[in-house]
Specification:
Elements (H helix, E strand, L loop, with lengths): L14 H52 L6 H4 L7 E8 L3 E8 L5 E8 L12 E4 L33 H8 L8
Length: 180
Amino acid sequence: MRRRLKLRDERGVTAIELVVVVMVVAILALIALPRMSAARARAFVATARADLRNLASFQEIYFSSHGTFSTDTAALRFQGSEGVSVTISDANNDSWSGTATHAAVPETTCEIDVNSIGESEESDNQVICYDTSGTGNSNNGQGNGQGNGQGNGQGNGQGNGQGNGQGNGQGNGQGNGSGG
């Protein structure tokens, strides 16, 4: 006697269900990608800012040995991060200034102005980053022309901010250090 195997009434995924799942995933990707690219840009700016801080350390070591600051990164034995262009624009016996730009975010420039004499400006020895494209978005939390309160290196500055409001909120991602 043969038994007949009963086929179950199971079906696979319908085309409509598959299309709905693909659309949900696409919408989530559209939401996440801009946020990830903004975070990536902030990371590149943070790298340029860190290079300027490291350059300041190399300048201090050079100054303690030679009594003057240098405009030559090779003489300082300074090696910047990949993709970061560092330029020392002015150096003498009592001060130096430099800029850094990351190749991935060329519209944002970071700069430092160091004065070894005790009478220094508010922004002295602080790395300030700003947007050079004219859009007003700094993507780094510092804003344009912000003087005090550079914060913890991530752009969460508090205090006497003078940056553009939109640039500050967009810049640090969490809305910290909006200045004013």
